Amino acid sequence: LCFLDEKTPLLFQWFERNPARFGKNDIPIINTEKNPYLNNIIKAATIEKERLIGIFVDGDFFPGQKDAFSKLEYDYENIKVIYRNDIDFSMYDKKLSEIYMENISKQESMPEEKRDCHLLQLLKKELSDIQEGNDSLIKSYLLDKGHGWFDFYRNMAMLKAGQLFLEADKVGCYDLSTNSGCIYLDADMIITEKLGGIYIPDGIAVHVERIDGRASMENGIIAVDRNNHPALLAGLEIMHTKFDADPYSDGVCNGIRKHFNYSLNEDYNSFCDFIEFKHDNIIM
């Protein structure tokens, strides 16, 4: 087990595809009675005053909305708003053309009777459709603006972990080391009391959802004890290999399975018990 101390930063995320649905001078994070996401973040910052609380954001925000983010940082000194375009993720990138060409070569190397001709045609079309200037896995998720956009850049942020705060060059973050860990929480997670120190297996743990006795790994919580955690790097390797990789199922879940050498012959519920991030002071 690896230990995350009581100062390990917390990270929330809000990627907004339509900032115009908020007031031009308001914080562009949903905050309704049904979905009090901004209040949940502020509550976390109030309870966990000794921790840095990051909000990883992206969107075409109005100047007044950015000012509102700055005021939020002023009102709560441990809150740090981290803009996606202020962070360099290029070290995690790969050309889309390389991914497609590798998959095309894999198909073409097969005996003709085993080749998936429909898939091969699809791969060649996708390769030819890549526009100049957009030959980048990272950029492809900026064009998405859906769940993939949110999920992919969450993975990128958690690869950076505590280094994300340093790279954002925010006041009050300089005590972090470049390999500091981080705990990501979805904005619907509610902290009720201080979390204190936390032990996690081999430096990584995630949220686990259980429905009708079946467990599944989820990315609503991701905790790592260092940047570039091998499980997330394993997920990134899958993203670099599969032309149809998914940031959640491949980038997180399959990366974790690969890191821990999980076999389909093993009991999946037991594996979820092992990797689960559990805490009595978080309403999940």
From TrEMBL:
<keyword id="KW-0843">Virulence</keyword>
<dbReference type="GO" id="GO:0046872">
    <property type="term" value="F:metal ion binding"/>
</dbReference>
<keyword id="KW-0464">Manganese</keyword>
<keyword id="KW-0328">Glycosyltransferase</keyword>
<dbReference type="GO" id="GO:0106362">
    <property type="term" value="F:protein-arginine N-acetylglucosaminyltransferase activity"/>
</dbReference>
<dbReference type="InterPro" id="IPR057545">
    <property type="entry name" value="SseK_NleB"/>
</dbReference>
<dbReference type="GO" id="GO:0090729">
    <property type="term" value="F:toxin activity"/>
</dbReference>
<dbReference type="GO" id="GO:0005576">
    <property type="term" value="C:extracellular region"/>
</dbReference>
<dbReference type="GO" id="GO:0043657">
    <property type="term" value="C:host cell"/>
</dbReference>
<comment type="similarity">
    <text>Belongs to the glycosyltransferase NleB family.</text>
</comment>
<keyword id="KW-0800">Toxin</keyword>
<dbReference type="Pfam" id="PF24688">
    <property type="entry name" value="SseK_NleB"/>
</dbReference>
<keyword id="KW-0479">Metal-binding</keyword>
<keyword id="KW-0964">Secreted</keyword>
<keyword id="KW-0808">Transferase</keyword>
<protein>
    <submittedName>
        <fullName>Non-LEE encoded effector protein NleB</fullName>
    </submittedName>
</protein>
